[in-house]
Design a protein that fits this description.
The protein is of the alpha/beta class and 182 residues long. 31% of the residues lie in helices and 25% in strands. It has a single domain, classed as Alpha-Beta Barrel (TIM Barrel), CATH 3.20.20. It contains 6 helices and 10 strands, in the order βαβαβαβαβαβββββα. An 8-stranded parallel β-barrel has the order 1-2-3-4-5-6-7-8. Strands 9-10 form a two-stranded antiparallel ribbon. Strand 2, helix 2 and strand 3 form a beta-alpha-beta unit. The radius of gyration is 16 Å and the shape is globular.
Protein backbone atom coordinates (compact mmCIF):
# COMPACT_ATOMS: atom_id res chain seq x y z
CA UNK A 1 0.00 0.00 0.00
CA UNK A 2 1.17 3.53 -0.80
CA UNK A 3 1.00 6.53 1.52
CA UNK A 4 0.56 10.21 0.57
CA UNK A 5 0.87 13.15 2.94
CA UNK A 6 -1.28 16.07 1.77
CA UNK A 7 -0.92 19.80 2.36
CA UNK A 8 2.76 19.80 3.25
CA UNK A 9 3.77 23.37 4.05
CA UNK A 10 7.21 22.97 5.61
CA UNK A 11 10.40 20.93 5.64
CA UNK A 12 9.61 19.30 9.02
CA UNK A 13 6.46 17.64 7.68
CA UNK A 14 8.28 16.49 4.53
CA UNK A 15 11.14 14.98 6.55
CA UNK A 16 8.67 13.24 8.86
CA UNK A 17 6.94 11.71 5.82
CA UNK A 18 10.25 10.49 4.43
CA UNK A 19 11.25 8.99 7.79
CA UNK A 20 7.89 7.20 8.11
CA UNK A 21 8.17 5.62 4.66
CA UNK A 22 5.64 7.71 2.76
CA UNK A 23 5.70 7.44 -1.01
CA UNK A 24 4.26 10.86 -1.93
CA UNK A 25 3.89 14.31 -0.46
CA UNK A 26 1.46 16.84 -1.85
CA UNK A 27 1.76 20.62 -1.98
CA UNK A 28 -1.28 22.88 -2.33
CA UNK A 29 -0.96 25.57 -5.03
CA UNK A 30 -4.40 27.15 -4.57
CA UNK A 31 -3.53 30.66 -3.34
CA UNK A 32 -6.86 30.99 -1.49
CA UNK A 33 -6.25 27.80 0.53
CA UNK A 34 -4.83 28.01 4.07
CA UNK A 35 -2.29 25.31 3.09
CA UNK A 36 -0.99 27.20 0.04
CA UNK A 37 2.77 27.02 -0.35
CA UNK A 38 4.86 29.14 -2.67
CA UNK A 39 6.60 27.25 -5.50
CA UNK A 40 10.07 28.39 -4.42
CA UNK A 41 9.49 26.94 -0.95
CA UNK A 42 8.50 23.65 -2.57
CA UNK A 43 11.69 23.71 -4.63
CA UNK A 44 13.75 24.07 -1.45
CA UNK A 45 11.87 21.27 0.33
CA UNK A 46 12.33 18.93 -2.64
CA UNK A 47 16.11 19.46 -2.51
CA UNK A 48 16.25 18.41 1.15
CA UNK A 49 13.99 15.35 1.06
CA UNK A 50 15.17 12.55 -1.24
CA UNK A 51 13.21 9.40 -1.92
CA UNK A 52 9.73 10.90 -2.09
CA UNK A 53 7.58 11.69 -5.10
CA UNK A 54 6.19 15.22 -5.21
CA UNK A 55 2.59 15.99 -6.13
CA UNK A 56 1.03 19.36 -6.89
CA UNK A 57 -2.54 19.88 -5.66
CA UNK A 58 -4.24 22.25 -8.10
CA UNK A 59 -7.77 22.93 -6.91
CA UNK A 60 -9.39 26.09 -8.23
CA UNK A 61 -6.46 27.17 -10.43
CA UNK A 62 -6.32 27.78 -14.15
CA UNK A 63 -4.71 25.38 -16.59
CA UNK A 64 -1.81 27.69 -17.53
CA UNK A 65 -0.81 27.95 -13.86
CA UNK A 66 -0.80 24.15 -13.57
CA UNK A 67 1.53 23.87 -16.57
CA UNK A 68 3.81 26.64 -15.30
CA UNK A 69 4.26 25.10 -11.84
CA UNK A 70 4.53 21.56 -13.21
CA UNK A 71 7.36 22.58 -15.56
CA UNK A 72 9.15 24.72 -12.96
CA UNK A 73 9.17 22.04 -10.25
CA UNK A 74 9.23 18.87 -12.41
CA UNK A 75 6.49 17.37 -10.25
CA UNK A 76 5.94 13.60 -10.24
CA UNK A 77 2.18 13.99 -10.21
CA UNK A 78 -0.79 16.30 -10.45
CA UNK A 79 -3.76 16.25 -8.11
CA UNK A 80 -6.62 17.87 -10.00
CA UNK A 81 -10.37 17.88 -10.35
CA UNK A 82 -12.07 15.68 -12.93
CA UNK A 83 -13.11 18.52 -15.26
CA UNK A 84 -9.48 19.60 -15.60
CA UNK A 85 -8.32 16.02 -16.18
CA UNK A 86 -10.76 15.62 -19.05
CA UNK A 87 -9.09 18.61 -20.76
CA UNK A 88 -5.54 17.27 -20.44
CA UNK A 89 -4.23 16.08 -23.77
CA UNK A 90 -1.58 13.84 -22.27
CA UNK A 91 0.55 13.88 -19.19
CA UNK A 92 3.81 12.23 -18.29
CA UNK A 93 2.97 12.53 -14.60
CA UNK A 94 0.74 10.40 -12.43
CA UNK A 95 -2.70 11.98 -12.22
CA UNK A 96 -4.60 11.91 -8.93
CA UNK A 97 -8.20 12.64 -9.93
CA UNK A 98 -10.15 14.28 -7.13
CA UNK A 99 -13.44 12.47 -6.99
CA UNK A 100 -16.69 12.81 -5.13
CA UNK A 101 -19.62 10.49 -4.62
CA UNK A 102 -21.52 12.37 -7.33
CA UNK A 103 -19.05 11.71 -10.17
CA UNK A 104 -17.49 8.42 -9.08
CA UNK A 105 -18.86 6.25 -11.90
CA UNK A 106 -17.75 8.70 -14.59
CA UNK A 107 -14.29 8.99 -13.00
CA UNK A 108 -13.93 5.20 -12.73
CA UNK A 109 -14.80 4.79 -16.40
CA UNK A 110 -12.25 7.45 -17.35
CA UNK A 111 -9.50 5.84 -15.22
CA UNK A 112 -10.21 2.42 -16.76
CA UNK A 113 -10.05 3.60 -20.39
CA UNK A 114 -7.51 6.43 -20.13
CA UNK A 115 -3.98 5.90 -21.39
CA UNK A 116 -2.73 8.28 -18.69
CA UNK A 117 -1.39 7.00 -15.38
CA UNK A 118 -4.48 7.89 -13.34
CA UNK A 119 -5.74 6.96 -9.90
CA UNK A 120 -8.88 8.04 -8.09
CA UNK A 121 -8.26 10.28 -5.11
CA UNK A 122 -11.41 10.04 -3.03
CA UNK A 123 -11.76 13.09 -0.82
CA UNK A 124 -14.08 12.00 1.98
CA UNK A 125 -14.84 8.93 4.02
CA UNK A 126 -17.88 7.20 2.64
CA UNK A 127 -19.79 3.95 2.74
CA UNK A 128 -19.58 3.95 -1.05
CA UNK A 129 -16.00 2.67 -0.73
CA UNK A 130 -17.25 -0.74 0.38
CA UNK A 131 -18.89 -1.38 -2.98
CA UNK A 132 -15.98 -0.66 -5.35
CA UNK A 133 -12.72 -2.46 -6.12
CA UNK A 134 -10.06 -0.14 -4.72
CA UNK A 135 -6.95 -1.16 -6.66
CA UNK A 136 -6.77 2.27 -8.37
CA UNK A 137 -7.85 4.36 -5.39
CA UNK A 138 -6.22 6.59 -2.81
CA UNK A 139 -8.65 6.96 0.08
CA UNK A 140 -8.76 9.16 3.21
CA UNK A 141 -6.99 7.83 6.29
CA UNK A 142 -10.25 7.96 8.27
CA UNK A 143 -12.09 5.70 5.80
CA UNK A 144 -10.73 2.36 7.01
CA UNK A 145 -14.03 1.52 8.69
CA UNK A 146 -15.74 1.52 5.28
CA UNK A 147 -13.44 -1.05 3.72
CA UNK A 148 -14.42 -4.66 4.10
CA UNK A 149 -12.27 -6.97 1.97
CA UNK A 150 -10.58 -4.44 -0.31
CA UNK A 151 -7.09 -3.06 0.01
CA UNK A 152 -6.71 0.37 -1.57
CA UNK A 153 -3.78 1.37 -3.74
CA UNK A 154 -2.98 4.12 -1.25
CA UNK A 155 -4.06 6.20 1.70
CA UNK A 156 -4.15 10.00 2.02
CA UNK A 157 -3.10 11.64 5.26
CA UNK A 158 -3.38 15.34 6.09
CA UNK A 159 -0.20 17.00 7.30
CA UNK A 160 0.21 17.93 10.95
CA UNK A 161 -0.69 21.44 12.01
CA UNK A 162 1.90 23.80 13.37
CA UNK A 163 1.51 24.45 17.10
CA UNK A 164 3.68 27.50 16.56
CA UNK A 165 5.98 28.43 13.67
CA UNK A 166 8.35 25.55 13.03
CA UNK A 167 6.84 23.27 15.70
CA UNK A 168 4.52 20.50 14.53
CA UNK A 169 2.29 18.13 16.49
CA UNK A 170 2.53 14.72 14.85
CA UNK A 171 0.66 12.70 17.53
CA UNK A 172 -2.68 12.51 15.70
CA UNK A 173 -0.95 11.79 12.40
CA UNK A 174 1.18 9.05 13.99
CA UNK A 175 -1.96 7.44 15.43
CA UNK A 176 -3.72 7.46 12.04
CA UNK A 177 -0.66 5.97 10.36
CA UNK A 178 -0.41 3.18 12.94
CA UNK A 179 -4.00 2.15 12.16
CA UNK A 180 -3.02 1.49 8.55
CA UNK A 181 0.31 -0.18 9.21
CA UNK A 182 -1.32 -2.95 11.26
Amino acid sequence: MLYKLNNVTNLSAARWAAAEGFDYISFNFDKSNINYIQPMEVLNICKWVPGLKFIGDFSKVDFSYINEIHQMLLLDGLEIDFETVKNLENSHSKIFIKSTQENINEVMNFVNISKMDCVINFQKESKILASYPLEKWFIPSNAKQFIINNIPLGVNFDSANEIEPGLLDFEELNNALECWKV
